[in-house]
C-alpha cells in the first residue's frame, strides 16, 4: 500500500527534520501530551506532527493553513488546544503562557532541540538564552568569559559565554536595564536603568558595590574604555564628565546644537567624545552629531544627523546610523567615507573590538555585518523578532544578538 501524505508528517515541511532533532521532539512531546491530557490517544497524531513541523520551519499558523489547504481559524484553534499546551508542559512553562507561535520555536530552541546550524556565511548558532521580556543591552567581558544581558524585565543576567550557562541574575533595578558594561579586568559590572540609576556590581557574587549616579530617564550614559570617566548626556544639550569612582564632576561640554542627547561615544584614545540626539526646537528632528576634543572641551566639528554613534578601536572612524541609513566618517577630517542603505529599519549596532567590522541589528530579525570599507560581509538569520541589542567578543569571533521577544542568540562567526 502506498503511504498517504498524512503518513509522512514532515511534508511539506521537510526542513524541520534537517534543522531539529525531530524524533526526540516527537517522543518528548508525546510524553508531555500524556502528562497534559492522560486520557487522550498516546503519541502525537499525524496532524499534530505536521503542525509541529510547520512551526519548526518558521511558518505562522496562517502559512501552515495555506500549505495544508486548511482554514486558518481551524489551525489556530488546533494549536492552542494541543501543541502549545504540550510545549508549555515540556519546557516547564505556566499553563496558557504560550500565546505567540514564535515563542514555541524559541522555547524548544532554548530546551536544546535545535541542531547546531551553519548559515551560508559559515556562522554557527551556538545557543539560545532567555529573559522574560525584551533584551535592551548586552556586553561581553574583555577576558571572553562572560556575557551580561539587560532586559525590560528589570534584571541583569550573567552567562558563561562558552557554555551558555546562567551564572547569576542581578535583580537590583526596578525598571528596564538600558546599559551593561564590564570593567577592563572583567571583575565588575556597570548597569543603568530606565529610572536613571547607574550602579556598580561585584561580578563574582552579584553584590552592589556603589551607586555611581542618578540621571534623568531621558539622559544618555556612556563609560570610557579605561573606566575612568562616566559621561552623561543631558536633556539640556550638555555633556557632564565625572570621575567614575569618586563621582567628582570633571568637565561640562557645551556647544551641542540640540537639547536631548540620546547617544554618546568616547574614543578609545580618550581624546574625543561624540554625541547625537534630538532637537525639540525643530520639531524633535535629529540634531547634528557633535564632536568635542578632550580635554579642551572645544567643539571640533559636526557630522550628519543620526541616532546612534560609535567610534572604532583605533579612534579614526565614526560609525553612525539613523532609521535605514548607515554612515562612516573620518574623525580627523570630517569626510564622509561611506553611506549605505539597509532597506530595513536598523534597531541596534556594535563595532567589533578588533576593529575589522561592525554589526547592525534590524527590525526583520537579521543581523548584518559590514566591513569598514562599506561592504556587506554576511547576514545572520535566526532571531524571530527585531534585534534590540548586540555585543561582539574581543577577537570578533563571537557575536551576541538580543531580541525584543526576550531571546539571546550566541553566534560563532567564521574567522
How would you describe this structure to a colleague?
- Helix 2 crosses helix 6.
- The chain is an alpha+beta fold.
Number of separate strands:
30
Profile the largest sheet.
5 strands, antiparallel
Q: What is the global morphology?
A: elongated
Number of helices: 7
Could you list the spans in which at least 5 consecutive residues all have pLDDT below 50?
1-9
**Major β-sheet strand ordering:** 1-2-30-29-28
Radius of gyration: 24 Å
Structural class from helices and strands? alpha+beta
Task: Sum this structure up briefly.
With 415 residues, the chain is an alpha+beta fold. Helices cover 16% and strands 39% of the residues.
Quick tags:
five-stranded antiparallel sheet; 415 residues; single chain; 7 helices
Tell me the layout of helices and strands:
Blueprint lengths: L14 H5 L2 H15 L9 H11 L4 H7 L4 H10 L1 H8 L10 H10 L6 E2 L5 E7 L4 E6 L5 E6 L4 E5 L5 E5 L6 E6 L5 E6 L3 E6 L5 E7 L5 E4 L5 E5 L5 E5 L5 E5 L6 E7 L5 E8 L5 E2 L3 E4 L4 E5 L5 E4 L5 E6 L2 E6 L5 E6 L4 E6 L5 E6 L4 E5 L4 E5 L6 E6 L5 E6 L3 E6 L3
Antiparallel strand pairs: 1-2, 2-30, 3-4, 4-5, 5-6, 7-8, 8-9, 9-10, 11-12, 12-13, 13-14, 15-16, 16-17, 16-18, 18-19, 20-21, 21-22, 22-23, 24-25, 25-26, 26-27, 28-29, 29-30
Helix pairs in contact: 2-6, 4-5
Amino acid at each position: 500500500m502506498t503511504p498517504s501524505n498524512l503518513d509522512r508528517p514532515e511534508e511539506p515541511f521537510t526542513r524541520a527534520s534537517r534543522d531539529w532533532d525531530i524524533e526526540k521532539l516527537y517522543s518528548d512531546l508525546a510524553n508531555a501530551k500524556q502528562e497534559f491530557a492522560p486520557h487522550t490517544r498516546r503519541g502525537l497524531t499525524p496532524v499534530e506532527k505536521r503542525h509541529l513541523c510547520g512551526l519548526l520551519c518558521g511558518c505562522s499558523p496562517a502559512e501552515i493553513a495555506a500549505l495544508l489547504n486548511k482554514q486558518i481559524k481551524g489551525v489556530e484553534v488546533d494549536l492552542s488546544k494541543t501543541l502549545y499546551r504540550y510545549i508549555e508542559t515540556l519546557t516547564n512553562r505556566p499553563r496558557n503562557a504560550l500565546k505567540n507561535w514564535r515563542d514555541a520555536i524559541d522555547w524548544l530552541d532554548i530546551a536544546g532541540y535545535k541542531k547546531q546550524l551553519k548559515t551560508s556565511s559559515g556562522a554557527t548558532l551556538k545557543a539560545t538564552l532567555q529573559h522574560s521580556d525584551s533584551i535592551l543591552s548586552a556586553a561581553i567581558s574583555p577576558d571572553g568569559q562572560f556575557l551580561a544581558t539587560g532586559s525590560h524585565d528589570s534584571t541583569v543576567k550573567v552567562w558563561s559565554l562558552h557554555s551558555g550557562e546562567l551564572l547569576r541574575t542581578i535583580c537590583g533595578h526596578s525598571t528596564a536595564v538600558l546599559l551593561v558594561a564590564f570593567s577592563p579586568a572583567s571583575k565588575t559590572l556597570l548597569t543603568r536603568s530606565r529610572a536613571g540609576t547607574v550602579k556598580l556590581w561585584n561580578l563574582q557574587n552579584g553584590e552592589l558595590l556603589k551607586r555611581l549616579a542618578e540621571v534623568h530617564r531621558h539622559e544618555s550614559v556612556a563609560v570610557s574604555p579605561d573606566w575612568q570617566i562616566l559621561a552623561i548626556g543631558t536633556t539640556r544639550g550638555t555633556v557632564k564628565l565625572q570621575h567614575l569612582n569618586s563621582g567628582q564632576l570633571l568637565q561640562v561640554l557645551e556647544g551641542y546644537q540640540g537639547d536631548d542627547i540620546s547617544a554618546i561615544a568616547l574614543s578609545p584614545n580618550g581624546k574625543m567624545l561624540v554625541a547625537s540626539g534630538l532637537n525639540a526646537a525643530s520639531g524633535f528632528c535629529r540634531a547634528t552629531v557633535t564632536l568635542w576634543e578632550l580635554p579642551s572641551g572645544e567643539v571640533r566639528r559636526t557630522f550628519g544627523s543620526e541616532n546612534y554613534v560609535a567610534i572604532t578601536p583605533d579612534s579614526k572612524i565614526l560609525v553612525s546610523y539613523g532609521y535605514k541609513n548607515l554612515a562612516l566618517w573620518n574623525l580627523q577630517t570630517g569626510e564622509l567615507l561611506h553611506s549605505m542603505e539597509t532597506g530595513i529599519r536598523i534597531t541596534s549596532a556594535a563595532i567589533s573590538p578588533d576593529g575589522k567590522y561592525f554589526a547592525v541589528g534590524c527590525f526583520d530579525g537579521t543581523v548584518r555585518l559590514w566591513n569598514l570599507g562599506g561592504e556587506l560581509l554576511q547576514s545572520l538569520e535566526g532571531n524571530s523578532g527585531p534585534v534590540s541589542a548586540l555585543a561582539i567578543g574581543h577577537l570578533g569571533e563571537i557575536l551576541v544578538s538580543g531580541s525584543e521577544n526576550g531571546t539571546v542568540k550566541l553566534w560563532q562567526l567564521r574567522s
